[in-house]
Amino acid sequence: MAPPVLTRRTLLGGLGIVTAGGMVGCSSDSSASDGRDEITYQLSWTHSVQFGGTYLAQDRGLMEDLGLTVNLAPGGPNVAGDANTVSGAALMNISSADGVARSNSEGAGLVIIGAQYQKAPTTILSLADAPLKEPQDLVGKKIGVAGTDTPGLSAFLLINNLSEDQVEFVPSQYDPAVLTAGQVDGIYCFYNDLPVALSVQGIEGYSMLLADFGYNTMSQTYTVLRSSLEDETKRDQIVRLMRGDAQGWQLYKDDPQAAAELVVEAYPDAGLDLETQRRQADLQLDVMFSETTEQNGFAWFTDEQVEQNLELFTLLGIDGMTTDLWDHSILDEVYKDGPTA
What we know:
Blueprint: H1 8-11, E1 30-31, E2 37-42, H2 52-59, H3 62-65, E3 68-73, H4 81-87, E4 92-96, H5 97-105, E5 110-117, E6 122-127, E7 142-145, H6 150-159, E8 168-171, H7 177-180, E9 186-190, H8 194-200, E10 205-209, E11 219-225, H9 226-229, H10 232-254, H11 256-266, H12 274-283, H13 285-288, H14 291-296, H15 303-315, H16 329-334
Parallel strand pairs: 2-3, 2-4, 7-8, 7-9
Antiparallel strand pairs: 1-2, 4-11, 5-11, 6-9, 6-10
């Protein structure tokens, strides 16, 4: 769950938030004593079923079968995943397209090679007895939004021919209490966390996914250094890591509840509630799998999605990005024998 004030969008990428405790300590290209390649895979947030497919890949030995020993480094409020990849502390990290674009505007040299989410998880959460179902429903309403997320909400309004003076932005600390107390009519959040938190409390909400109305920023992106793709050894490691991760997510699709139970057992100090993890595991299937992934493979992205994201970057004030921010060659290799290879 996201903590007060800070939002996950702030922390998924960017080079500006790094502390000594935020840097993972393992080399991304060392050789393990058992002969497998030892690498570090930087997650975008703290351990939860959000990364369930990756945990299943580890637990079922898929990474070992591919000759990898994978150190899973959790993210969090003091971890800048993009920075860890840039420094070489991680071979690959999970980020977001707009986060990677901002990092590259500072000279990071990163490239996106896949996307776990087919739909961005950003949503406007309202209460079921007063649902906000479409953009026009926001007119005259109070929407709770963290300061760092206001550009996203502003861009969403613009895409849907609404102006900011038609909606009241209420500063929020990512706390659903402002919604349940009636201080706001909706809250800008993530589809697979605050809505789940309310449902576990027995409060029925309604989630309006922004992706369904034109604001679909590429999320949970597999991110590596471009130079790593040009290095034969690192490129081979990336291909194997992506293949193992994709196979893990196929297992997740078949049995998300197994992932929920695994993460609670594997990370007992993370304070995870099994019922919450179970609900989140089912819910995020909605944004992770699609007809595109069914036909082409998990984490697939299309040229159309790339163009849509470049247009969104302009609305978000991120300039200078081109299609070079993405590279499809790793997915092409992983799925050369079919979408579940």
